[in-house]
């Protein structure tokens, strides 16, 4: 994960554990539930999801592909409702098109992949994103409450590999 992502993840974790007027603020909806909502309501395939704060509201930002085009969705982390969807600016980077194709043709949806990883690791997925390494596509997964904090999941085979020192 890049430095910006790591910083945002740490900031989000700090916000989630900081008491607000005597109580701990935590999402009521899991990342897996938010991804499933976005996928089903938009009829699209997700390939990236993370917790974020949007104007003070807790949301999950989910990136999806529909008909070969990228779509972004915000799912309220408290209610589980889809609160916004948009088409991101067109990027003419070859890797973006490659990611979209890999996500759209993956044998499992992102919500199925999250469920598989959580079952195998006994942890909770905090963040997941598509990457290309060595000519193959993988989901890089950040876990909470698992022995291995970060793992790679092969998009095609579902093989889970711990990331050491990442």
Blueprint of the fold:
Elements: H1 3-17, E1 19-20, E2 23-24, H2 31-42, E3 45-54, E4 57-66, E5 69-76, E6 82-86, H3 94-105, H4 110-121, E7 124-133, E8 136-144, E9 150-154, E10 160-162
Antiparallel strand pairs: 1-2, 3-4, 3-7, 4-5, 5-6, 7-8, 8-9, 9-10
Q: What can you see in these coordinates?
A:
The chain has four helices and ten strands. The chain has 166 residues and is of the alpha+beta class. The chain has a single domain, classed as Nuclear Transport Factor 2, Chain: A. The strands form two sheets. It has an eight-stranded antiparallel beta sheet. Strands 1-2 form a two-stranded antiparallel ribbon. Helix 2 runs antiparallel to helix 4. The radius of gyration is 15 Å and the shape is globular. The relative contact order is 0.15.
Could you give the count of β-strands? 10
Number of DSSP helical runs: 4
Largest sheet descriptor:
8 strands, antiparallel
What structural class should be given to the helix and strand makeup? alpha+beta
| CATH class wording | Alpha Beta
Percent of residues in beta strands: 35-45%
Task: From the structure above, extract its key features.
166 residues, alpha+beta, Nuclear Transport Factor 2, Chain: A, two-stranded antiparallel sheet, 4 helices, 10 strands, globular, disordered N terminus
Please sum up the structure shown.
With about 170 residues, the protein is of the alpha+beta class. It has four helices and ten strands.
């Amino acid at each position: 994960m890049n430095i910006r992502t790591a910083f945002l993840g740490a900031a989000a974790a700090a916000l989630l554990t900081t008491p607000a007027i005597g109580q701990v603020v935590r999402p009521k909806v899991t990342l897996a539930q938010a991804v499933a909502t976005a996928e089903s309501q938009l009829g699209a395939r997700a390939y990236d999801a993370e917790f974020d704060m949007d104007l003070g509201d807790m949301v999950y930002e989910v990136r999806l592909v529909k008909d070969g085009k990228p779509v972004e969705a915000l799912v309220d982390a408290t209610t589980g409702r889809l609160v916004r969807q948009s088409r991101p600016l067109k990027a003419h980077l070859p890797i973006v098109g490659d990611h979209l194709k890999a996500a759209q043709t993956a044998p499992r949806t992102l919500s199925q992949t999250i469920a598989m990883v959580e079952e195998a690791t006994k942890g909770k997925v905090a963040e997941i994103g598509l990457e290309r390494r060595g000519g193959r596509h993988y989901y890089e997964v950040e876990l909470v409450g698992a022995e291995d904090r970060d793992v790679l999941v092969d998009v095609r085979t579902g093989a889970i590999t711990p990331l050491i020192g990442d």
